[in-house]
Amino acid sequence: MNELQRPHVVVVGGGPAGLAAAETLAARSCKVTVVDRMPSLGRKFLMAGRSGLNLTNNESLSDSDNGGFLRRYGNAASWLGSSVRAFPPEKLVNWAGELGQPCYSGGGGRVFPKAMKASPLLRAWLQRLGAAGVSVQSGSRWIGWSEDGALLFEHRDAVASMTPDATILALGGASWSRLGSDARWVGALVERGVDMTPFRPANCGFVAAWSDTFRERFAGTPLKRIAVSFEGVALRGEAVVTARGIEGGVIYALSATLRDAIDRGGSTILHLDLRPDLDEAALARRLASVRPRESLSNRLRKAAQLPPVAAALLREVGEPPKDPVSLARLLKAVPVSLTATDSLDRAISVAGGVAASACDERFMLTAIPGVFVCGEMLDWEAPTGGYLLQACFSTGRAAGEGAARWLETRGLLREQDSGLYPHPS
Ligand SMILES: Cc1cc2nc3c(=O)[nH]c(=O)nc-3n(C[C@H](O)[C@H](O)[C@H](O)COP(=O)(O)OP(=O)(O)OC[C@H]3O[C@@H](n4cnc5c(N)ncnc54)[C@H](O)[C@@H]3O)c2cc1C
């Protein structure tokens, strides 16, 4: 195929989903241009690597007593399942290894590159994409379509257009907008009749009505080795007090159910166990061994090695009891009233986006043939643990493969069996 015969595909959004689509299409001999509104690509991916890039999870794909990988996507599992099966965690790990980033499994099946960071992986990936002929146009914001169907971009105060043979939209979610994904594209899709589910925060923090004294003194303080319980689910981990409320790993893990409960009732109560490794009776015995005349903070420190934030948390819910049994009971279940999710922009990821009903099985928008969607802009959510990036890589590759198949059916690309979709008969 010479240069003129190669179909041109524009991928809008250079995060992991868009780049995965670009890689798939370049491998199918398409001419690929990745356009991004930011000055450089993969900014959220780089941010994800700041605290250890949890690339995927080695949990088995199929359902199991523990849940199984695909069940982490809830109702969206049936939608995303074929893409994750086609490009499962082991393929993602091999792919990272090919780019010089071998991975290892940490606790809870979480898989990380040994380097922990995203930067060496992204650098090697962009180099390989460049070598495969993928071109990048950064600093261009996609703003919609012209009347004759051309893609419109704002670039340095001017509007430019492109008319590719197929388009991949990989625009990300609606959080951490300073990294690129600001969801300002929603109107352009709604105008073309694409079903959208409103964005909501996922893996997010919550608002708690802290007193001014507590907020000023303890915002930013970690709550280490605690357990939280909600609606019969108890999880151990860490949280952090914020000026607005509470956030952190163990809170994110419960955030979907907490968010839904707040949506239903306006507020909800989360219980914190500040010494999950001691049962109530053992804790009461320890508290009884410290002189009651000691300050609450001293009693908690001497009897249970708890930091000052523990006593302050108890005071947030009322006058703490003095007798050891009641005090132990409270320490094992401090009620924290949550009144709202923290802002959408602060959430690690989002729920909502392009609805499953808007797409066919190739991730093509049924309202706009030739336009494919992937990554976090789709309406799914998952907990942290590597499930977010895995779905972005898998749906990105599936959308790329879907676009290649669509180009084949239009005679623009030679047929090649990817094994992902049945060939049209
Ligand atoms: C702090 C943090 C830590 C995280 N850690 C992890 C982790 O360890 N493991 C994990 O699985 N997930 C993690 N995530 C989530 C993960 O990074 C995202 O789910 C993933 O990056 C989404 O990929 P995407 O390609 O769909 O979108 P994005 O990475 O958001 O990329 C979308 C791209 O589209 C561009 N764009 C948007 N609108 C336009 C427009 N109109 N025109 C042109 N370009 C546009 C943006 O500039 C951006 O580059 C983390 C997220 C955060 C915020």
UniProtKB/TrEMBL annotation:
Residues 8-401 form the RsdA/BaiN/AoA(So)-like Rossmann fold-like domain. The keyword Zinc does not apply. NCBIfam families: aminoacetone oxidase family FAD-binding enzyme, flavo_PP4765. Residues 200-349 form the RsdA/BaiN/AoA(So)-like insert domain. This is NAD(FAD)-utilizing dehydrogenase. Pfam families: HI0933_like, HI0933_like_1st. Its cofactor is FAD. Keywords: FAD, Flavoprotein. It comes from Acetobacter nitrogenifigens DSM 23921 = NBRC 105050.
